[in-house]
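**User:**
Make up any protein.

**Assistant:**
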Amino acid sequence: MNRLLVLARLAPADPDGQLLARFLADRDEAAFAELVCRHGPVVWGVCRRRRPDPRDAEDAP
């Protein structure tokens, strides 16, 4: 697993808003990685449902 993701998962649980603020203010990669861990599966699920071809889902913005 990516070292950055491992470090992010070990950080105390901050609310999403706080993580987003850290990323926007400081480009905090660990904060962004935590947001991706929390919400990535949901976003991926929506992309897969909207674009049945997996290749199209991977390219969805």
